[in-house]
Amino acid sequence: MRAGSPRLLREINDRAAIEALLRNGPLTRSELEGLIGLSKPATAQLLTRLEAGDSVVRNGLRGGGRGPRAQLWSVNGALAHIAAVDLTPETVDIAIADISGAVLTEHKAPMPAKHDVLEAFVSAVGKACWQAGLSADQLLHVVVGCPGAVNPANGELAYAPHLPGWSGFDMPGRLRAQLATSVSVENDVNLVALEEMVAGRATEVSDFVVIWPADLVGAAVVVNGSLLRGASGGAGEIDGLMIPDRAAADTDTDRSGGTFGELLSNTSICKLARAHGLTARNGHSAVRKALAAGPAGREFMVDLAKRIATGVASVVAVLDPELILLSGDIAQAGGTTLNDLVAAELRQLVVPRTPIQLALVTGKPVRSGALHSALAVAREQVFGLPAATTAPFRGPVVAGSPR
Questions:
Q1: Which end of the chain is less congested by CB atoms within 10 angstroms, N or C?
Q2: Is pLDDT at 399 greater than 60 in this prediction?
Q3: What sign results for the dihedral spanned by CA atoms 241, 246, 248, 254?
Q4: How many angstroms from the chain centroid is the CA of residue 223?
Q5: Are 326 and 339 in contact, with CB atoms under 8 Å apart?
Q6: For residues 30 and 41, what is the distance between their CA atoms, to the nearest angstrom?
Q7: DSSP states of 82-136
Q8: If you write DSSP's letter for every residue of 22-42 in order, what string do you get?
Q9: Of 119, 224, 131, 141, which Cα lies nearest the Cα of 186?
Q10: Which CA distances in Å does 352 have to 217, 224, 228, 325, 346?
Q11: What burial class does residue 286 get, using C-beta atoms within 10 Å of its C-beta: 0-12 exposed, 13-18 middle, 19+ buried?
Q12: Residue 326 contacts residue 202 (beta carbons within 8 Å)
């Protein structure tokens, strides 16, 4: 096809219109005309063409002013549906959405500890689809976020001791067969990084790291706007990183070293809290109690910050990113107090003065990142949108937040 031919120009304009509608929601013809830079007749022809092809639908009227109400247009969400899944050792949290990004239903179900995990997972997805009036094989794509990383060589989930029932087989391949649809499996913190690029603090940042200090410590590394996965999919798996325990309180920890994950486990944090006179049932509860205790809880917060900063220092020394983002329940419970303490400790450990901030996206960041990732795949397939605007971890994804 010749460059500049009428067919090519129509395709370019159609894609621009679809992108504008996905990014902004329902628009009038004149609003769309202003966004894509076409004349009034050309925009009207474009909308007629897209409506005939079921790509767009009429979506009510916009009133206001003294003139007549204007027709609104939006992307036809019924063209395709996707599922976004946050898989943890205890639960599976599912959202079903249409291609416009509108969430049709949500479903959360418990997961067995080790056996029959596939059956429980497939049943939960099936229930979510049923709630949305669909079957699993009607989904265009499913993205599953979980602890650990999928080895690209064999599809097996590695670095995931908390998910023992999911090891030893091609996880995405088995899920594709069970659900009879396309499935991708992604590390949960990687999906948090995607969400921070879309709707968080990393929208204008090219090189950053998300750290999830929790019972299973994880990290996501973004370099030049792209996720670094590593040769075996294990980039960012810092849970097993050996670090010294620099906490001042005596908790019978081996001061010469332990894994990052061990020092930030619920058991270890609760033990550290008891050494400071605080009793808690898990890590984020200990942090909340320390903050509520005021000055009496500060020494615990300093000790916890030392443990977090010691692990983060290894990441900063190697990568020297523009930004470190702390995410997850413990980071959010600690708020700016914990964040500032970690930053102060980090400055004593490494040369780069990397800023540390709390991740902006809270609530369900893993599932939200999975939603954007699944929408990117669906929109590329259905609308032919270029990868630069739809691919995960590369630039803004044109979708509204699911929350």
A1: N
A2: no
A3: positive
A4: 17
A5: yes
A6: 11
A7: EEEEEE-SSEEEEEEEETTS-EEEEEEEE--SSTTHHHHHHHHHHHHHHHTT--G
A8: HHH-SEEHHHHHHHHT--HHH
A9: 141
A10: 22, 18, 20, 15, 9
A11: buried
A12: no
Instruction: For residue 57, count CB atoms less than 10 angstroms from its CB and return exposed for 0-12, middle for 13-18, buried for 19 or more.
Output: middle
Non-local (6+) Cβ contacts of 48 within 8 A are none
Q: How many residues does the chain have?
A: 403
CA atoms within 13 A on the CB side of 333: 20
Which residue has tokens 């096809």?
Answer: 1
Q: Which pTM does this prediction carry? A: 0.89
Beta bridge partners of 150: 157
Alpha-helical regions (H) of 201-282:
260-263, 266-275
State the pLDDT confidence band at 357, using cuts at 50, 70 and 90.
Answer: very high
The CA distance from 119 to 116, in Å, is 5
Within 10 angstroms of residue 395's Cβ, the number of other Cβ atoms is: 14
Q: What is the pLDDT of residues 203-256, one digit of tens each?
A: 999 999 999 998 789 999 999 999 999 999 999 999 999 999 998 887 776 666
Residues with Cβ within 8 Å of 67's Cβ and at least 6 positions away in sequence, in order, are none
* Tokens coding 221: 């590394």
**C-alpha–C-alpha distance, residues 211 and 346, integer Å:** 14
Residue 113 has pLDDT above 50, yes or no: yes
The tokens for 130 are 């049923």
Query: Residue 22: is it exposed, middle or buried by C-beta count within 10 angstroms (0-12/13-18/19+)?
Result: buried
User: Is there a contact between 119 and 89 (Cβ–Cβ < 8 Å)?
Assistant: no
Q: What is the pLDDT of residues 306-326, one digit of tens each?
A: 999 999 999 999 999 999 999
> Locate tokens 């980090």: which residue?
346
Q: Are 222 and 202 in contact (CB under 8 A)?
A: yes
Please check the confidence at residue 161 and state whether its pLDDT lies above 60: yes
Please tell me the distance from the alpha carbon of residue 136 to that of residue 374, in angstroms, as a whole number: 14
Q: What is the separation, in whole angstroms, between the first and last Cα of the chain?
A: 42
- Mean pLDDT, the chain, integer: 90
Task: Give the mean pLDDT of 73-82.
Answer: 97
Please check the confidence at residue 64 and state whether its pLDDT lies above 70: no
Return the bridge partners of 259, or none. 242
- Given a contact cutoff of 8 angstroms between Cβ atoms, the answer to whether 85 and 144 are in contact is yes
Tens digits of per-residue pLDDT, 16-27? 999 999 999 999
User: 239 by DSSP, 3-state: which?
Assistant: coil
Q: How is residue 116 written in tokens? A: 């029959």
